[in-house]
Design goal:
Blueprint (H helix, E strand, L loop, with lengths): L25 H17 L1 H4 L13 H8 L4 H11 L10 H14 L11 H4 L14
Helix pairs in contact: 1-5, 4-5
Amino acid sequence: MAAPASVPVSTAPVNTAPDSALPASTAPARQAARGETVYILACAMCHGDRLEGLTGPSLRDESFEAGFADLPPLGLHDLIRDTMPQDQRGTLSPQEVLDVTAYLLGQNGHILPDTGLNTGNLSRLLPRRQDTPRAP
């Protein structure tokens, strides 16, 4: 019987640094990716896999603009924190709420801070309609 073939193991370092220690362009993307994961697990059953809305409202495009564009990002964050998921309110961790908020804002054209969304910069972000206009 032949010996099992060896499997090469990568010796490349794994980046485990918190987002605040990452290059500026990486932090928002990583946060949005985490937010998308939380969204799929906790929100998609009502709001749809593609934010299209099912039993809950659509969270993209004109529907998002109509319902949330005038709401400061802090207001959206607090709405998620206090009322979602509807059947298990308050079960998302503070970081999960920040991550989902970042994901939703990013998916709707909001420009996120270079360091990612955090409790320190969340209250300073403007509502979407006061932010940079969407590209055509």
